[in-house]
Design goal:
seven-stranded mixed β-sheet; about 15% strand
Length: about 425
């Protein structure tokens, strides 16, 4: 499907029905798959044949949706996970082990920050956080001999910092490590990080890809561009025999698909963070309308951001679509069609005013979510980033009074009217 536009890929990639087959992606709601001989099954366990034998590893429904997302991002292969958190965990853990080190942008989602700063530390993997806006030299100074990856978000949640992908990619590659980019907010409709040097992309498919808040899921896509063999001493899990699979060497057997194959056969085998086929079916329905919804989200968000920036009770607005925004130029470079439907802003009255404002909303919903069809609002310092101290909040670009507003696809006049009446009470 590589010759088709994104709108067409969203509908047709991943599954091509043949004569007499269903037009809609079938739900293969089965844990197991039948074979006629023990040798046939044995070939699958030895990774010498393609096929399905247990859904914890692979399922036809799941694989079709993964193939669609890989095509949308321009990657060679993808794997779906049970959540965005699982995707980020697998993406890093697939190439890291105890004694290794990761460098990450500080302005990332609070749950991912905690994953890298706390949970990975318990596994013996350390992480150094760097300012996303730091110079290449400053970012490079955080690298250590045991650094295995550089991690960042295309559009940071909730600070809405826009990543200079080329800068981060050059630093990563100069140190012989891959750049992993969480592309959840931008989606491949607005940005394809591989075109700017990223090596691995992750998603919380729970957000815009689903778009209706009906399934939780994640995805990892590999560009196939990083040369694992060139740095085999670092990535021996990919370039040396895997004794748990009869000595297979992933880079030798699977080439550009080595990274995703290892994530499937090792991590999914042992940790099992799979999405259900039903969830993947629902995700696929969301993907079919992704370009339409993203366009509406961005259009509505632009109008809402312009309204808020002109309001006397609003101290500041973070939205790269505004010409005066700090990241406007970067957004124009990497995401000329639009960024996302999420806005963060602060009221003059700080935290207290934010609480009064949010409690006065009637149309918008207070929820720990973004990127659904409905407008949602959240107070990061009290909710998603609650585990951070004041210093960590500042590093993540989160102020005590910051409000995160996920603009939905309702009529924008209704959204603005709701904000206006709530601001009267702020």
């Amino acid at each position: 499907m590589s010759d088709f536009k994104q709108e067409t890929k969203c509908i047709h990639s991943g599954y091509t029905p043949q004569k007499g087959e269903p037009c809609a992606l079938p739900i293969c709601q089965s844990t197991t798959f039948k074979y006629d001989t023990t040798d046939e099954m044995g070939q699958l366990f030895d990774l010498k044949a393609d096929g399905y034998f247990y859904t914890r590893l692979q399922n036809p429904t799941n694989d079709a949706v993964a193939a669609k997302i890989a095509d949308l991002e321009g990657g060679v292969a993808a794997i779906l996970t049970s959540s965005g958190q699982a995707a980020n965990f697998y993406a890093v853990f697939n190439i890291c082990e105890a004694g290794d080190h990761v460098v990450a942008a500080s302005t990332i989602y609070g749950g991912t920050f905690n994953l890298l700063a706390v949970t990975f530390k318990k596994l013996g993997i350390d992480c150094t956080f760097v300012d996303t806006d730091a110079s290449a030299e400053e970012i490079a100074s955080a690298f250590q001999p045991n650094t295995k990856a550089l991690f960042a978000e295309t559009i940071a949640n909730p600070a809405l910092v826009v990543l200079d992908i080329e800068k981060f990619a050059k630093v990563a590659h100069s140190h012989g490590v891959p750049l992993i980019v969480d592309n959840t907010f931008a989606t491949p409709v607005n940005c394809r990080p591989f075109e700017w040097g990223a090596d691995i992309v992750t998603h919380s498919t729970t957000k815009y890809m689903d778009g209706h808040a009906v399934q939780v899921g994640g995805a990892i896509v590999d560009s196939g561009n990083f040369d694992w063999e060139a740095y085999g001493h670092k990535y021996h899990g990919l370039t040396e025999p895997d004794e748990s699979y009869h000595g297979v060497v992933y880079t030798k057997r699977f080439g550009k698909k080595a990274y995703i194959t290892k994530a499937t056969t090792q991590l999914m085998r042992d940790l099992g963070s799979i999405p259900s086929p039903m969830n993947c079916f629902l995700l696929n329905l969301g993907l079919e309308t992704l370009p339409l919804r993203v366009e509406r989200h961005c259009c509505n968000a632009q109008k809402v951001a312009e309204y808020l920036s002109a309001h006397e009770k609003v101290a500041s607005v973070n939205f790269a679509g505004l010409p005066g925004d700090k990241y406007h130029d970067l957004a124009q470079k990497y995401m000329p069609k639009g960024t996302c439907g999420v806005i963060s802003f602060e009221l003059n009255g700080g935290r207290e005013a934010a609480v009064r404002f949010m409690d006065s909303l009637k149309l918008a919903t207070i929820a720990t979510h973004v990127a659904a069809s409905i407008t949602m609002v959240l107070h990061p310092a009290s909710h998603t980033h609650r585990q951070m101290n004041d210093e960590q909040l500042r590093e993540a670009g989160v102020s005590p009074g910051m409000i995160r507003l996920s603009v939905g696809i309702e009529n924008v006049d209704d959204i603005i009217a709701d904000l206006a009446q709530a601001l009267e009470n702020a």
